[in-house]
Amino acid sequence: MPITEEVAAGLPGKAAVDADGAPLGPVTGVFDDDHTGRPEWAVVRVAGLEHLAPLADADVRGGRLHLAVTTQRLLSAPAAEDVDHLSHDDSVALYRHYGTSPAGDTDVAPHPAT
Fold first, then answer.
1. Host domain of residue 25
2. Between residues 2 and 93, which one has the greater pLDDT?
3. Which of 85, 86, 92, 113 lies 20 to 30 angstroms, CA to CA, from 37?
4. What domain count does the chain have?
């Protein structure tokens, strides 16, 4: 079940864990996709740095955000140019890195990172 706007509004301050259940750090924000308007990215602080993680396939259980990506994938994700808004280029780079794309968006051709 996708993360809804109501659930996304409550994510900041929650602890995030990776796909293996390893603790990452707190969620400090959420970005919506400009095309769909849905919550697409969680901002997670790991070792003092903020990283963007996809909310696709993520869920909230036990008061924590469970991401569907590994710590390594999160830490190697491209950084956003602007911390207040994701540009189209930043979004495309993130979708490609994670090998995903927003539903119905045909102008993004994801290429998973190796």
1. 5-98
2. 93
3. 113
4. 1
